[in-house]
């Protein structure tokens, strides 16, 4: 794999995102997540998965520049949604260890994990509306489940991120640690979970996902369709261009 490193430590698969400078969620990186899950699924010695980012960030978002060359943007976001859904329903517990920033697609990846541990200074948010877009990797459906509709609306409408300790207070993260302690603390928790029966862990994961109704999956599909429609607008072109040019976007509602 080009953008992921996979190691095993005491029954814990450590998946490290390595795509500097921001560990952006490119098409290839998303596909490699599926490839990593394939490998981990076959490895019966692995009981728990921890995902973290190398360098300054967990993942600062989707690869916006790559969007411009994607032939079918709706199919692209649908594929990412499917892989993130596989992550959320994966038979082994998946933990996100978040430092620096988890924004856009990075936060959508983290929200698909079963547990999230953060550094106190980490920034978590869905800033897609600042680009004239909407979250497309499941964010519109998962964020309200964690923080409630009003807070989710505020985070998406304003594009403002929340810090790690605030994320814990809102239920988006399980606990916050000092950055230098984060990965070690996350691995300690993962190794504790790894001592449990894999049969009971899988059954518990199945039950946690059992409450997801058909409305959730309809919403995921509608999100992909809406992303495609919004992506085709002049406002989206302006937002992406402004992002690339590092300037404020001027939206005209077209």
From TrEMBL:
Signal peptide: none
Transmembrane helix listed as a keyword: no
Gene3D superfamilies, alphabetized: 2-enoyl-CoA Hydratase, Chain A, domain 1
Gene Ontology molecular function, alphabetical: enoyl-CoA hydratase activity
Keywords: Lyase
Pfam families xref list: ECH_1
Source organism, top-level taxon: Bacteria
EC code(s) of this entry: 4.2.1.17
UniProt similarity note: Belongs to the enoyl-CoA hydratase/isomerase family.
Matching PANTHER family: ENOYL-COA HYDRATASE-RELATED
Protein name, UniProt field: Enoyl-CoA hydratase
Native source species: Kurthia gibsonii
Lineage start: Bacteria, Bacillati, Bacillota, Bacilli, Bacillales
């Amino acid at each position: 794999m080009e953008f992921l490193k996979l190691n095993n430590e005491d029954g814990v698969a450590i998946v490290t995102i390595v795509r500097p400078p921001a560990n952006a969620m490119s098409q290839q990186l998303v596909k490699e997540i599926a490839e990593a899950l394939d490998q981990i699924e076959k490895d019966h010695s692995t009981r728990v998965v921890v995902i973290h980012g190398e360098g300054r960030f967990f993942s600062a978002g989707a690869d916006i520049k790559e969007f411009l060359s994607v032939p079918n943007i709706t199919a692209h976001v649908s594929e990412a949604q499917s892989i993130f859904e596989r992550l959320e329903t994966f038979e082994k517990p998946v933990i996100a260890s978040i430092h620096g920033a988890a924004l856009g697609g990075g936060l959508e990846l983290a929200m698909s994990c079963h547990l999230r541990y953060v550094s106190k200074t980490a920034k978590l948010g869905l800033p897609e509306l600042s680009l004239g877009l909407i979250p497309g990797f499941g964010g519109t459906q998962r964020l309200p489940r964690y923080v409630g509709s009003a807070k989710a609306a505020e985070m998406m409408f304003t594009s403002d991120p929340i810090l790690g300790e605030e994320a814990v207070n809102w239920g988006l993260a399980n606990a916050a640690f000092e950055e230098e302690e984060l990965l070690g603390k996350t691995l300690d928790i993962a190794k504790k979970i790894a001592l449990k029966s894999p049969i009971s862990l899988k059954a518990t994961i199945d039950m946690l996902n059992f409450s997801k109704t058909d409305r959730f999956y309809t919403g995921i599909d509608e999100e992909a369709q809406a992303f495609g429609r919004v992506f085709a607008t002049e406002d989206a072109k302006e937002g992406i261009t402004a992002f690339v040019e590092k300037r404020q976007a001027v939206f005209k509602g077209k």
